[in-house]
Amino acid sequence: MFKKIFIVLTILCPVLIDCARHSDFQRLSAPQTSQFRREKLKNELIQSTILENLASELSLENEKKWQSAFWAMELIQYQSEKVEQRIKQAFLKIDERSIAFQRALLEVICTLYPNNFQEAVRRLTKATKNSKIFAMGIFYLNGGRFQPNREHQRLLQKKFSAQHDDPILSMLSFYLTQPTRRLFPTADQVIDLMQNPFFEHNCVIFSFHRVNRSYPGLTVIKKNDNTFLRKNDGTLFSISHLARSVSNLPGFLTNLEGDVAWVGIVGMGKGLEGKLARRQTNPQNMQLSPGKFLRTCHVYLDLAKPLTKELVEASIHELASNGAEVIVASAAFGVDDPRNEIFVSEIAAKMGYLATAASSISRLYGLVIRTRTAVINASMMPKMLETANMTEQAVRKTGIKAPLMIMRSDGGIMDINEMRKRPILTMLSGPAAGVAAALMYIKVSDGIFIEVGGTSTDISVIKNGKPQIKSAQIGGNRLYLRTLDVRTLGIAGGSIPRIQHQKIVDVGPRSAHIANVNYVAFSKESDFADIEIKTIQPLQNDPDDYLTINKRSDPSVKYTITPSCAANYLGFIKDIGHSMANMKALNSFFTVFSQKIKTDAQKIAHSILTISAEKIKPLIKQLIREYKLDNELVQFIGGGGGAPALVPYTAQYMHVEHKIAENCEVISAIGVALGIIRDSIERSIINPTEADLISIRQEAIKSVESMGAVPESIEVSIEVDTKNKRLIAIATGSSELRTHDLNITILNDEQLQIIASKSLKTDVSKVQIVARTGFLTAITSWISQKYLFGLFTQKYQKLRVLDREGVIKLQINDCLAEQVPARQVKSKITDFIAQLTTYGDAGALVPDIYLLISAKIIDMTGLVQQTQIMALVDIELQNTLANDPIGVIATRKK
User: Fold this and answer.
1) Distance from C-alpha of 310 to C-alpha of 313, rounded to nearest angstrom
2) How far is it, in rounded angstroms, from Cα 609 to Cα 604?
3) Alpha helices in 128-166 (DSSP H)
């Protein structure tokens, strides 16, 4: 097991660091900021953020507004009788509020009202079960400092006796039991503090801060052998830092927030559109999450007159004086003519600023969203560039010379140099790695990928060998950023059942990990004959009926049963995953538990898994409807350490085939290693011409080539989105390292037909090869289906396309397919279009067309007109000979 690392922020004064607020406070009071602008910002905060937000009714929906008001009050030290009355109102039903709201409220009163709300805080401190809220309440009741207090120490021990290794409670206990210290401690007191056995045999980080913010703080590290980390010359290893705070709370009670840079925006336009551009290029302060804002400042340049170097430099200096660290250039219709954006960004770069042209991030119309997307990209650049440089240096120092690739949020990978220019593409890449593994490692062509952890489950769709994509949103702000459509559910392998009147009524969303209880399945104990059934409330505002079990011989240790326990007990887990279950413990527990609640043990386990499956089922059905999946082709692919606990039972419950990925517990890491190079190019085009299709295709190819994709491996699919007036090209390709697979086992026709027949659910004698290239084989089977009480019979053709290893690359359950020489492809497509075109309210719907060319499956399902299809056929066939075999496949558009 890995040793835990605890961070101890050691407090030597009442006012400590709060890194998240440092930049805002500094800019508000910076000497280069004019008095007028400081007053303007202050008045805006009072009117728009404080008074307006606090005027709203306090409800679950408006909590975030109140939290923003509290933050602004701290920042400018704002007090009034009116806001004090609103704070009193906030305390009326404080136990019903979220932990984030309680924390924000305590923080603002600690800073601005240190003595006004003693009784209200006392009631909250006694009621709360959250360690941070408890510690903040004790700090407030102690007059804004920590000092020895036996009453508070007894309350701490009574409420949190079992939480021995909670860093916050350990720090609080230390302060409540140590002798009173002077504001400026002596060296002996510091030595005594550092020798205190905090979390013995674990790594501990001590961070010291001084009351005078002009002096640096200091961080030192105590190793798990209780000695301090030293340099090679024997001196103590330490890290110096400066701190600034707007909160009176100690550092270990405040949350540090992410590092995003203050963005300066140069908006541009002229004429009538210029009046709109002035407003549309100024997103002002963008809320990313509750209480966390991306700060911007803005200047506008009228393009009625040509831009000059002097004018741009003066504008950038103005933005910098207001605190801007990075620059975004955004002009009305900049996608049509990006020269002004590029001009501004180049001058900013020469002046030493990181800069982004909005048109380089997205080429879609929509000035507001394009600017917003560019601003978020720019705000990430300083920190991401630092991260990229440090990562690359570390890799190169090891002697590794291979290209350094970064995971993208759409499931692909890109070269680190591309990440430096567009870090926004990595922003939502977390779940993408698992989907990449499903595509490249498990080699799924159609299915629903279910990645199960201990606390939550991520579900996504793979159709025709492609992950499904959607537009991203951050903090409610829609972006021009395409990400995987991954849906998350609060049910997983570690979810805790809820019990009422001796009956399991629900499972999750809280997990054993969050509640800090142990799995029966992985217990070292084997005898659970002497147990007590209890319930807990894992987090404040949670129900208090989550099931736990104590052994009377050791009541301090809490256990629970989970879907992992139930699936092991019922024998559903064939793939071991992380570790083998203790079946003696499970058998002992379920025997005793079933007697206590007077229910059959098998029924209890089935109930836990059925409730879990019922939570997954509606989302699966929704995805099938949204993406028009063929029910016959749907299969579940399980990944993640918890997959064996949920996927087999859910598949059986829904009568769907399934498989668990090999090495499922590390599937995401495998996905990162195998990710394919990918990029998408989008254009706003009302009625794209053949030239538009060719242009965007070539741009997509060049993009992935520049990221390291081998030209021969690149495939491009083009989608014409008539509803949103967009043209989208998605290019994928492999790097040099992945194009030479030396361990391929090539199967013969008979072996391929056996694999296809199993997938087609028919006898091998009823399948036939209808098309073959040097790398792909199309195998079909005709199916007869009776309808209207058997009066009519319909025949249709099912198809599977396999590669040389027998991996199914494409599945279609109703299509026409034929092999023709390259010179006859266009006439065959014309023939198929004539047979399969359907008509509806929107007019003619041409069928979906696929081509099998060498090792590539050319997907033209995103095209809506025959002329568009023919234009791309000419491009795809330009490197083929007239007699080269080409597979042509067509299916009615759904």
Assistant:
1) 5
2) 9
3) 131-141, 150-159
